[in-house]
């Protein structure tokens, strides 16, 4: 008993995107499907998997397709599916993971960026191994301050489609390993600070490290929307604005 | 859902039956959104919320019956105007709650 519930509870505890589909009427009332949608590491297309059954293979297929849309919209929804001569009422109950912003580099820009992200409801993490940057005085407002090498910290971190990673150190030795690590994970956004020239050098380094061009194209660089600003606050705002744009476009497109 | 998992786990560990109530339709103003949940143990303890307090006790009653019959049911609740006022809404709404035994 409770096999499906245990699987759902586990997925929710791990804070991963999933949907529980429940039949609300008819003979099949109470039947369930657990739908998960995971982007396989290194791949670009997310795969939808379903566990359980609503009692009919065609129904399951239709329900999974709707659940995939509803999950992308990140909103619990009630739907009606026509089945032969009757209508089947379903609740598609979505668990939306906590969005998190992971900032590599406890630099000046990171200070206002943490403020903006928190204001928008994101959980914030700052990673920097350099003790003079990663201080409690500078980052008293961050949810998590990690003093270690960025690639090592990222490796251990739970990252999913609701995770957004930005590299701000300006230092290849720190940024490049962090980017390699982030590109290997199914994160929703990757941005790297630096001019076009810096980015061109970075692309060469990433290629040499064996990262494919398709993967490299996931990096937003130069980072942020072009707001024309130069101050740390303005750059942080441009970065945050780009993250909001990326996250909302995905929602709108219903993909 | 996440916030009620620990209590459900404790009840199940203790060998208790658990019913789960979920808001599946909201008409007009209602204090809790679609998908909001209340879990009820066989001895009537509850965790979570489907209405911000207005219909919780009625939901617990229904949930205990669901545990007895073992059959899920769909229940409609009108939220009285005065209760709606108390939770900060200008008008009463109606919510539909799906109540099921947690045996899936």
TrEMBL record, chain A:
Positions of transmembrane segments: none
InterPro entries documented for this protein: MoCofactor_Util/Proc, XdhC_Rossmann_dom
Domain XdhC Rossmann residue range list: 101-243
The protein, known as: Xanthine dehydrogenase
Record organism: Caldilineaceae bacterium SB0675_bin_29
Automatic annotation (TrEMBL), chain B:
Domain XdhC- CoxI: 11-78
Protein name in UniProt: XdhC family protein
